[in-house]
């Protein structure tokens, strides 16, 4: 099943985001322990198209629990970068 993780940064989180970026990137390099496969992911940006303001993941997993475990294991989660997170099932219709 596919899920979307939509995570919006807390105000003033940019410095913390940047200082944890390498750990976040390393974490994403092997998702095997979580049973999650990334279909697409990347930063959400402000209207300038450059400044990161959150994160977006489209993942495949057997169930929501696997996605929640994956999300809670992300160094960005541990660093408290995200203020608002939603995890939602997704059915692809087009594209």
Explain this structure to me?
The protein has 95 residues and is of the alpha+beta class. The chain contains 4 helices and 4 strands, in the order βααββααβ. The chain has helices at residues 14-19, 21-28, 64-73, 75-78, and strands at residues 2-9, 36-45, 52-61, 82-90. It has a 4-stranded antiparallel beta sheet with strand order 2-3-1-4. β2 (36-45) and β3 (52-61) form a beta hairpin. The mean pLDDT is 96.
Write the layout of secondary structure elements.
Elements: E1 2-9, H1 14-19, H2 21-28, E2 36-45, E3 52-61, H3 64-73, H4 75-78, E4 82-90
Antiparallel strand pairs: 1-3, 1-4, 2-3
Termini separation comes to 17 Å
How much helical structure, as a percent, in the residues?
25-40%
Specify the overall morphology. globular
Give me the strand/helix succession: EHHEEHHE
**What would you report as the Rg, rounded to the nearest angstrom?**
13 Å
Question: Low-confidence spans: pLDDT under 50, at least 5 residues?
Answer: none
Number of helices: 4
Please report which band the strand proportion falls in: under 5%, 5-15%, 15-25%, 25-35%, 35-45% or over 45%.
Answer: 35-45%
Strand arrangement across the biggest beta sheet: 2-3-1-4
- Strands, total number: 4
Oligomer: single chain
Average pLDDT, to the nearest integer?
Answer: 96
The gist of it:
The chain has helices at 14-19, 21-28, 64-73, 75-78, and strands at residues 2-9, 36-45, 52-61, 82-90. The chain has 95 residues and is an alpha+beta fold. It is globular.
